[in-house]
Design brief:
The protein is mainly alpha-helical. About 80% of the residues lie in helices and about 0% in strands. The two termini are about 35 Å apart.
Length: about 425
């Protein structure tokens, strides 16, 4: 436990806000940046997906952080590193080989961000008792999602405003470069400022694990992985994790590119300002609302009774994108409603998968580690489908691609309907 008695309100919101920024920037915002700089959808989706690999594999090096320094040290170090890397990405946009350079820097941001996540969650659990952890869990989620709104909403809107401003005195491509350079430098400065604040605000945890060697940690990691493969319904559960988000994995990286693409290309021709307001702000708010309502829904009826309906709510809203691509409406209100419906369904249905991994896959001797492994498998499936999405979309076109994603929802419905439950639900979990 911490000896500094830091009030959690002074650091929990800010550190989880800092956790959300790099993930949202790399998963959503930079795709729009590359689209505006005339990079092909195929290249964007492949590389923007691949660079997120560290968030999938972070459980492999998380045990080793216990052997060196403190979690507070890693949080501050990774925030400083991430902030500097974002600023360097901004300046790299000025160079001829900007795409390769920024992708390389993004990969380093991803590794730094994943390591930051490990240290942050570790500090939260190590320095707060269970009662306090429960008290501030809502602050965690709230400020992580505020980071989504700031990045995919506010910063995307700012990029669009800056593009229009710079376009009055320079060519559109140069204006786009200047605008995104400013945005990346701003995000870099913000994260560095958070690192400096956290140097004083974070509680100090233990310096390192006592009496453990790297070989002992490696042996423990092997035991955790082996135990995971021995779980009942292991193969079925792996398939369930992969297929539940199959369609979403294809859609995730394409949607912002579709919104930005011109109408002659089959897109909706929205500006960054419009995307920032609709996709980033209202969409993120709908996601949060869906997540909250799903929690009450599951607590009242139980996960076993609600899982298939959650899968339906999660996957059926992809019809909205098939509609938008097929009819290409010009009404911003109609486009916004379709996106809000999809994001609400995403937030509502995603809770079902999260709780299934937590209550049916993770329980056992290594519960926390097994949940991390299950989450890694889930992220890996989304990463692989995201890498392939650009090539498929290029061949099919946006309208046919979104019809293809509707077909990709069918395996999710089938496997969810028949998925077995290993652990019985407790009474308090199934009654509000």
């Amino acid at each position: 436990m911490n000896t500094n008695h830091r009030n959690p309100i002074t650091w929990v919101p800010s550190v989880y806000f800092a956790m959300g920024l790099p993930f949202v920037m790399l998963n959503m915002v930079t795709s729009l940046m590359y689209k505006g700089l005339d990079i092909s959808d195929e290249q964007i989706t492949f590389w923007a997906s691949l660079i997120t690999l560290p968030w999938t594999l972070k459980f492999l090096w998380s045990p080793f952080l216990e052997l060196f320094k403190s979690k507070k040290f890693f949080i501050i170090a990774t925030q400083l590193t991430t902030g500097i890397l974002f600023a360097l990405m901004g300046f790299a946009l000025q160079l001829p080989s900007f795409f390769a350079l920024t992708i390389g820097l993004s990969a380093l941001v991803a590794f730094s961000g994943a390591t930051h996540d490990i240290a942050t969650d570790g500090l939260y659990m190590d320095t707060l008792d269970k009662q306090t952890q429960a008290k501030y869990i809502g602050w965690q989620g709230a400020f992580y999602n505020i980071a989504k709104i700031v990045a995919s909403g506010g910063l995307v809107w700012l990029a669009g405003w800056l593009i229009k401003h710079f376009s009055t005195s320079m060519p559109k491509h140069d204006a786009t470069v200047q605008a995104w350079m400013v945005v990346l430098v701003i995000i870099g400065v913000l994260i560095v400022a958070l690192a400096l604040y956290h140097k004083f605000a974070l509680p100090q945890d233990a310096r390192k694990a006592e009496g453990r060697t790297s070989s002992e940690v490696m042996a423990e990691l092997k035991a955790v992985l082996l135990d995971f493969t021995r779980k009942k319904h292991f193969l079925y559960y792996i398939a369930f994790i992969i297929l539940y988000r199959l369609a979403e994995g294809f859609v995730m990286k394409i949607v912002p590119l579709f919104l930005k693409a011109t109408r002659t290309e089959g897109g909706l021709g929205l500006s960054e300002e419009q995307i920032g307001i609709i996709y980033g702000s209202f969409g993120a708010a709908a996601f949060v609302l869906g997540s909250i309502l799903a929690g009450y829904y599951i607590s009242h009826f139980g996960l076993k009774r609600t899982l298939f309906s959650l899968c339906c709510v999660f996957n059926l809203p992809f019809v909205a994108y098939a509609f938008l691509a097929g009819y290409q409406p010009e009404s911003i209100s109609l486009i916004g409603v379709a996106i809000v419906i999809e994001y609400f369904g995403y937030g509502f249905g995603f809770v079902g998968l999260t709780l299934f991994m937590m209550h049916q896959i993770a329980p056992g001797k290594h519960q926390m580690s097994h949940y991390a492994i299950a989450s890694g498998i889930m992220n890996l499936s989304v990463m692989v489908t995201g890498m392939a999405s650009g090539a498929i979309c290029t061949k099919l076109g946006y309208a046919n691609f979104f019809l293809f994603t509707l077909v990709a929802t069918i395996p999710a419905f089938l496997i969810t309907y028949f998925v077995p439950f290993t652990h019985e639900e407790k009474a308090q979990d199934t009654n509000a």
